[in-house]
Design brief:
Blueprint (H helix, E strand, L loop, with lengths): L3 H9 L3 H7 L1 E5 L1 H8 L5 E6 L1 H4 L11 E3 L2 H4 L11 E6 L15 E6 L4 H13 L4 E5 L8 H7 L7 E5 L1 H8 L3 E10 L9 E6 L7 H4 L4 E4 L11 H18 L2
Parallel strand pairs: 2-3, 5-6, 5-9, 6-7, 8-9, 8-10
Antiparallel strand pairs: 1-4, 2-4
């Protein structure tokens, strides 16, 4: 049975302030929760309905697992169609991002991305294409927002996410920067080399002017139709796909 204190704790984690205060975030769904159980993240507690419990195989014996009724579960879920599985997960310690650790690969830099669904999709896409690090501006939506976590479908468990002053980071990284802009060299004629920072901007305003000044190569996705712009998550997918194509077929 759920106590009022447990309900209060879980619902408070819908807000960034309390996620930071408690050092916890919410993960829901059988697949996503299973991914985090198998990852390096530490599970604080697991809440499951009787039906969902039968679908969760090989749970660690030391895992704090609390069985709740379907009715009780509706008090804590963030989803419209929940699967009856919700985990509270400990946030990993925040580590400084050392440019030396990413100077032989490509990383994604996000400048004030606001939509949780976009960030979640970007994280999931990055993992598909083997991108291991995403560097976010301070103004980018929190990666531990429940909507972001849900959209990653478990990929957040394996991607390194950092929040920092991206202007300062770009300056000291020494890596070549590629900015996704409406005008620039075609992505299909751009040599991305073996490493660099792929910068994508805010949904409404794009990359801010201060960061544009740090872009070494402006890159655009050629437009054939008449749409005004591309969704940032879709644009990220196209960039990641082209990076992969070059690595696989141009060596």
């Amino acid at each position: 049975m759920l106590s009022k204190a447990q309900i209060s704790l879980i619902t408070s984690l819908h807000h960034k302030k309390f996620r930071k205060q408690h050092g916890l975030f919410i993960v829901e769904g059988i697949k996503s929760v299973s991914e985090f159980i198998s990852s390096t993240y530490q599970i604080h507690s697991l809440y499951v309905t009787p039906d969902a419990r039968t679908k969760m195989n090989n749970l660690p014996q030391n895992l704090k697992c609390i069985e709740v009724s379907e009715r009780e579960f509706l008090k804590i879920t963030t989803l419209a169609s929940p699967q009856g599985v919700l985990a509270l997960v400990n946030m990993a310690p925040i580590a400084d991002l050392d440019p030396e650790k990413i100077n032989h690969t490509h990383s994604i830099v996000l400048d004030d991305i606001q939509d949780p669904g976009n960030l979640g999709t970007i994280i999931r896409t990055a993992e598909w294409f083997g991108i291991k690090t995403i560097i976010c501006s301070i103004g980018t939506v929190d990666a531990f927002n429940p909507k972001v976590v849900q959209a990653t479908m478990g990929s957040l468990a394996r991607i390194s996410i950092h929040y920092t002053d991206i202007h300062s980071f770009i300056e000291r990284s020494g890596l070549k920067t590629f900015g996704a802009l409406l005008s620039g060299q075609s992505i299909y004629k751009t040599d991305f080399g073996d490493s660099g920072l792929i910068i994508l901007g805010n949904e409404g305003n794009g990359i801010n002017e201060a960061i544009i000044k740090q872009v070494d190569q402006a890159v655009t996705i050629p437009r054939i139709g008449s749409a005004e712009s591309l969704n940032v998550a879709i644009a990220t997918t196209i960039f990641c796909s082209e990076l992969t194509r070059q690595k696989l077929y141009q060596k």
